[in-house]
Amino acid sequence: MKKTTYILPVIVVVVAAFLSSIFIVDEREKALVLQFGRVVTIKEDPGLAFKIPLIQEVARYDDRILSLDVDPLEVTPLDDRRLVVDAFARYRIADVNRFREATGASGDTAVRMASARLDSILRAQTREVLGSVSSDDILSSDRAALMVRIRDGAVGQAQALGLQVVDVRLKRT
């Protein structure tokens, strides 16, 4: 009777430690294994992974394409007509380590912070590109080329955040 009172708690502790060292990386996410706040390992492939219990923690980030609805902004093209432009963008987290460094957070808080920064980048690029053409070009079939210019201008700045801008579209002008 006395052996089981000692062996049973030891078995429970060993099983609990083993189970807390396992984590699953879903196919829709990427994970960073952090040890005392520093990145130890980046897990991008789905499946089982291991960590040291109580010392290491896992920060998960979405690997899917995310969307950002840019607030409507007023643009003044070359011919001094005021246009209100409504746009949206599709992006994804390309480099989770750089993304974590740029935002300083994890989870939904990091995504919200990155979305706010990307929103300001896209607003600036939209104003710059649409301010350099006439309103007839904005409202014509050249609109697709303007969207590509906006996206290409935002790509470099978004890479500094660890983001990849997939597409930028003007919904309404």
How would you describe this protein?
The chain is α+β, with helices and mostly antiparallel strands and 173 residues long. It has five helices and eight strands, in the order H-E-E-E-E-E-E-E-H-H-H-H-E. The strands form three sheets. It has a three-stranded antiparallel sheet with strand order 3-2-5, with no helix packed on it. The protein has a three-stranded antiparallel sheet with strand order 6-7-8, covered by helices on one side. Strands 1-4 form a two-stranded antiparallel ribbon. A hairpin with a 2-residue loop joins strand 2 and strand 3 (38-43). Helix 2 (96-103) crosses helix 3 (108-130) and helix 3 packs across helix 5. The longest helix is centred in the last third of the chain and has 23 residues, at 108-130. The radius of gyration is 23 Å and the shape is rod-shaped. It starts with a helix and ends with a strand. The model has no long low-confidence stretch (mean pLDDT 85).
